[in-house]
């Protein structure tokens, strides 16, 4: 979300008196399951072609939202909007004796935790896989309370507005404002994101995360956690667990209580290709991730790290520098806007768990697609314009998915700053599927916008989507300000880390 963030010292005030409880013998790491929406989809008629069309559209929407003109960027939160692209985390709120459990999108591109509270109205939600919900929203948890207008949390969610202004909006008297004695609740706030929006109130109360039955993944319970209750939304019926860098995100609130748990977190997304039978095991989310032992490099390849870039305008994003891309033996140098962030906060590539497909600036994408098409054409593959029209992806080819065909697809690697090269498995950037009577395959990377239109926007230049992150453990090292990537068998990693 593009907003001013409260100064760091406000965190001390924001979380003062908060405490946590972990039912575990050790605190160095905790593991929680992430569920892919496709694994719980009830719409058996939703084809891969429909998934790809929806996901390409919504990846573009999310990219557009990240790059709104400055005058429209003030109160926006980036959220996953489409079926089949999101990963959810199970959270319970309220007193342990009567908890309310909700499934929230795990999103590194936003920095607030929110969920629907009754009475809840969701406009333009008909037809979404998660609507109507199996269990209707419950009232705000009785164990929670509204956040005061003079709090640091209220200022943070209202884009850094001073407490005096917020308390005036909340109808406090001048005398109460001058004496800092106003106890009125924080005013409702409005978020706009992509093709949706919401109105919510801040609340504070108990929140718990539940993992597997293994002791190493036991429940994590936080008291006085600040979250948002939404009573109305447009096109978004599911809440979000924001893991961004802002003061209201889940890692930030956890860091005030247990720095060792929040200093490094990672996730490992199980490869799926939009097939339910590949999502039988959850994707592990690891809080307090420790560095794997170097004694078994074949089993646990080491992380390659790229430094996080400081973004003065969007400090909540995990921005990194993309230096170049390799298509087969040929390297494409990335433009300066992908390699760094300027003083206005424009540029860099955001590592985002809530966007499906990687988005590149128009010029960079055109160079990538041209080079990819040249090598595919030399290998004898024929373009299919019909599939490109039906999916929103390009280039697409007639592709039988035989071993010989697979070997002919050129490799794709991303080269980040800090000498961090990430060679993608073929399934992460070129996917084969049925289209009518034919087998086809498409490049699963997208153009962010037309070149002429991009000049009117600011914000991140590119986005690394979750489809390209499959089969990698992605670690966010907040202490050393870097992001790391390592190839993993994510289902196996889940089993090993949750084994009693």
From TrEMBL:
GO terms for biological process: proteolysis. Transmembrane segments: none annotated. Residues 61-71 have a biased composition (Basic residues). Keywords: Aspartyl protease, Glycoprotein, Hydrolase, Protease, Signal. GO terms for cellular component: extracellular region. GO terms for molecular function: aspartic-type endopeptidase activity. Residues 87-486 form the Peptidase A1 domain. InterPro entries: Aspartic_peptidase_AS, Pepsin-like_plant, PEPTIDASE_A1, Plant_Aspart_Prot_A1, TAXi_C, TAXi_N. Residues 61-80 are annotated as: Disordered. Residues 1-24 form the signal peptide. It comes from the Eukaryota. The keyword Ubl conjugation does not apply. Belongs to the peptidase A1 family. This is Peptidase A1 domain-containing protein. It comes from Zingiber officinale (Ginger).
């Amino acid at each position: 979300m593009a907003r001013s963030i409260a100064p760091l010292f406000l965190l001390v005030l924001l979380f003062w008196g908060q405490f946590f409880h972990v039912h575990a013998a050790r605190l160095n790491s905790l593991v929680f399951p992430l569920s892919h929406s496709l694994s719980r989809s009830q719409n058996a008629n939703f084809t891969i072609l429909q998934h790809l069309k929806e996901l390409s559209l919504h990846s573009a929407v999310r990219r557009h939202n990240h790059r709104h003109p400055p005058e429209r960027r003030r109160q926006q939160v980036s959220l996953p909007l489409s079926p089949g692209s999101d990963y959810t985390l199970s959270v319970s709120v309220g007193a342990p004796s009567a908890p309310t459990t909700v499934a929230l999108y795990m999103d590194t591109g936003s920095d607030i935790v929110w969920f629907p509270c009754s009475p809840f109205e969701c406009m333009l939600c008909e037809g979404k896989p998660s609507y109507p919900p199996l269990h209707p929203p419950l009232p705000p948890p009785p164990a929670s309370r509204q956040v005061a207008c003079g709090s640091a949390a209220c200022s943070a969610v209202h884009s850094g507005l001073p407490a005096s202004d917020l308390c005036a909006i909340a109808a406090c008297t001048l005398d109460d404002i001058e004496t800092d004695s106003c106890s009125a609740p924080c005013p409702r706030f409005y978020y706009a994101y992509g093709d949706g929006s919401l109105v919510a109130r801040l609340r504070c109360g108990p929140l718990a995360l539940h993992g597997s039955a293994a002791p190493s993944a036991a429940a994590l319970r936080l008291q006085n956690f600040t979250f948002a209750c939404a009573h109305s939304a447009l096109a978004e019926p599911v809440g979000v667990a924001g893991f961004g860098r802002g003061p209201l995100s889940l890692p930030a609130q956890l860091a005030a209580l247990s720095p060792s748990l929040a200093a490094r977190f990672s996730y490992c997304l199980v490869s799926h290709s939009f097939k339910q039978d590949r999502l039988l095991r959850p994707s592990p989310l690891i809080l307090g991730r420790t560095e794997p032992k170097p004694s078994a490099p074949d089993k646990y390849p080491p992380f390659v790290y790229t430094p996080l870039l400081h973004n003065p305008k969007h400090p909540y994003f995990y921005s990194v520098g993309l230096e170049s891309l390799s298509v087969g033996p040929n390297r494409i140098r990335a433009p300066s806007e992908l390699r760094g962030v300027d003083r206005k906060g424009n540029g860099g590539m955001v590592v985002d768990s809530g966007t499906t497909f990687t988005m590149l600036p128009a010029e960079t994408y055109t160079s990538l697609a041209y080079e990819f098409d040249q090598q595919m054409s030399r290998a004898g593959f024929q373009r299919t314009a019909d599939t490109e029209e039906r999916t929103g992806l390009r280039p697409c080819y007639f592709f039988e998915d035989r071993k010989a065909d697979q070997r002919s697809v050129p490799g794709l690697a991303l080269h980040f700053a800090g000498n961090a090269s990430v060679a993608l498995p073929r399934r992460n950037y070129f996917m084969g599927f049925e289209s009518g009577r034919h087998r086809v395959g498409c490049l699963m990377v997208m153009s962010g916008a037309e070149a002429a239109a991009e000049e009117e926007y600011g914000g991140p230049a590119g986005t690394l989507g979750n489809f390209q992150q499959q089969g990698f453990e992605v670690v966010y090292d907040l202490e050393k300000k870097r992001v790391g990537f390592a190839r993993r068998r994510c289902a196996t990693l889940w089993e090993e880390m949750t084994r009693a």
